[in-house]
Amino acid sequence: MLLHRPGKGVVVVKCMKHEQPEIRTIHVGHNVCSSITGEEVYIPHKYPHNRVVSSQYTLLTFLPKNLFSQFRRIANFYFLVVGIIQLIIDTPVTPIATILPLTFVITVTAIKQGYEDWLRHKADKEINYRNATVVEKGHLKDCRSMDIKVGDIVRVQINEKFPCDLVMLSSNNQDGKCYVTTANLDGETNLKTQVCIPETRKYRLDTDFEGLEAVIECEKPVADLYRFIGRLHIMQNGQKITRPLSLENILLQGARLRNTTFIYGCAVYTGQETKMGLNSKFKTTKFSHVERRMNTFLIVFIITLFLLSSIFTGLKYWYTTTFILPWYVPPGKDELTTMNVIEDFLAFTVLYYYIIPISLYVTIEIQRVVGSMFFKWDCSMYDDELDHPAQANTSDLNEELGQVEYLFADKTGTLTENTMQLRFCSINGIIYEEINDTLCEYNSSQPVSNMSEHLIEFFTVLVLCHTVRVDHKTSGDTVVSTDSIYSHSGKDYEYNASSPDEKALVEACRKYGIVFHGSRNDHMEVTFQDTMKRFKVLNILEFDSIRRCMSVIVQDETGEIHVLCKGAEIDIFEKVSSGDLQSASKHINQFAKLGLRTLAIAKKTISRIEFETLNGALLEAKSCLQRREKKVLEVCNMVESELKLLGVTAVEDKLQKDVPETIIKLRNAGIKVWVLTGDKEETAINISYSTGHFNMGMKELHLTGNVTSDDCQIAITRLCQTITLSDDGDEYVLIIDGQSLHHVLANHQPALRQLCSSCVAVLCCRMSPIQKAQVVRFVKHLAGAPVTAAIGDGANDVSMIHEAHVGIGIMGKEGRMAVTNSDYAFGKFRFLSRALLLHGHLYYIRLATVVQYSFYKNVAFITPQVFYQFFCHFSQQSAYDSFYLLFYNITCTSLPILIYGMFEQHMLQSKLLGKPAYTSQ
User: Fold this and answer.
1) Ligand-binding site membership of 181 (annotated)
2) Does the annotation list 793 as a binding residue?
3) Which residues are catalytic?
4) What DSSP character marks residue 399?
5) Transmembrane stretches, by residue range (predicted)?
6) How many whole angstroms separate alpha carbon 767 and alpha carbon 15?
7) What is the pLDDT of residues 235-279, one digit of tens each?
8) Is 502 known to sit in a ligand binding site?
9) What is the DSSP secondary-structure string of 899-918?
10) pLDDT at site 40
11) Which CATH number characterizes residue 178's domain?
């Protein structure tokens, strides 16, 4: 271990291996800064290399690891044991009849797995040997990507991928910004803006870093793509300056640099510790119910084998003690000794061991691979808009698609298009609607002709309080990214936003401005644009997944400081002290009945002293490495208080094509559909009716608004009594919110099971991502252990996709996290009917037939062997020649059933899709 002592150089000492610390301390450029850390002795920590390893084997480990993996299968291990027994005892069947087929099966599987691993090695080598550039002693040095170490200062050129996770230090832009795409991480193709701290922007040459004294402190690696907590200490003019680091300061491995000539960054996470590496770990292996039952069958047949061997061993000694043995039987063979009994038992085991089909696993594996190809080749599941076919990320769960009993579906982006458009807004108690890209008063087709103070104040918040970035073309195909909507007079705008709601609101603001400027009232556009120019953004409070709101602190030309806030009404209303709250609540309920997504808009004015206090507290909270989120939340709650309510917005998210027809088909096939969404109750109910999830005439049971466990117990008891006293023909649907679900899952699961079993559909609203997974886990443990499937399109659906027996991803507009973490994926919800009712049904029928046939043919094959022992006086003679034993499973019977298992269609596609009830039979 190398130690650095100030003034004493580097010494070598020995130290014990220690665990990785909670906080990682990195000396930028490996320049030891004892003046920053205050440590007399610097002990460098050994971090993982930057080598990407997705392969499972090496040349040395392939044979033992692959054999161990294959012999974990019951059938393979069973035949291995039988082969060993045949080599030990005086076997009635030649060992070649067992060893040769087993070797063939093991070899074929090993070749397949070895080829797949070779492809992974090839892909790894391409990444690991990619050229990279690091700064070493003030000079650029070329190296391989795999040689980058934590602490290295790395230079990345335009259009290059980041070789590891870097904290951005500088770029060629004087403002310290760069633009990246993260399609390889989350599937989002839009440009994202990353920045460096102001103190390191000036380091734009490799020679500038020679005198840099800086230390980065950050948390240990976490897999969350949207989380990074750290701080940077830098010495400038003899003083130590500390700046917080967050997600906007880090450049993730796999992302690509765009529209920026170069950047410099310090490596903080390398190799498998990068966020891409942590998210690329193999998921928990899922096994289909058919495979589990097949293992049960194998155990039953093994028990049957041992039972037969025991019976015939007893019959042999009964015969030898009752009748006189022929002269050619060696002396002592008829003696009842322990060794003779064991040897005879093993001999009968070897004689009957073909009761288990040795080729079963190979047949199933080939059938599954071909079946997954059919899934990809289905032209009816090809998405023309995305220009992408359906994909099968695994072939091990093909038949599971045909056994789904419960389907859990996200709403936004799964049942809907996730294409937002502003429809209504309520401002100062007055409803406005959008008609032909113009803002009109409700029930009036005349555009607003006078931009009142309330309207300007409302739209000012919409224009300033967002994270949308505007791109426009200046010349040719050159794209310039800005943070201002009105920074360019041209009309070639392209908005990039992480939230489609935000994009819809900003686009609406621009549309209204352009329409007013072009035809109705020139003064309105000038007033609107000038209003925007009067503000200077001072601070932005970042999004929070729990708070569901954001705020921007701005200063106008008069020096006044304003807090502009936008978020879910359930959060904003709690912080409002003035404004027309009653009208806003009424209008929100009205919008919700139309199935629209709503947001509340608010603001307040603060003094300079208040701003300095809050800004200091926010900076201190963001600089903390421990419990940063909690401390930032506390400051945000202080900022977002005593607000003035300005109004609410209502955005429409249109249904996808054929969603109602698809849900009806699934219900007719016996599949219960549960919708899990984060939307408010009224909006979610309206969407359920419009999608066919709920039908008119069904009676609603509401388990919502319960704040305690006792309240939930009373509500469930009341709902169960309602069902008990109702008519037999009534159909019930259950609506439950996240707050009530929290208490019910913790304390009242049996009662909830009884309630859900009486309902034809369930709607869960106001759900968090983890609650979606909890609901899936709850249903998986219902009576009968039903097969579950979960379908979603966003990162918030990944947890329930992992939890379900079958996870299905929609290639939507919220990135590709759901797709990459799913078992199967396609572009539209309507393709689900073909996936479950056609492909899944055929997969299940085919595989079930293959498994039953494989066991049946071997039982039929071994039965004559059993009866033959009565004619050979239980002498363990074989009724078959070794040639038949050798080739019966591999060649004589495997090919016909394999062809059947790949191509059999016992029912027409039109009947399976047109009459879904057939799939449940």
Assistant:
1) no
2) yes
3) 410
4) G
5) 71-89, 296-319, 345-364
6) 49
7) 888 888 888 898 889 999 888 898 888 999 999 999 888 887 776
8) yes
9) HHHHH--SS-HHHHHH-GGG
10) 61
11) 2.70.150.10
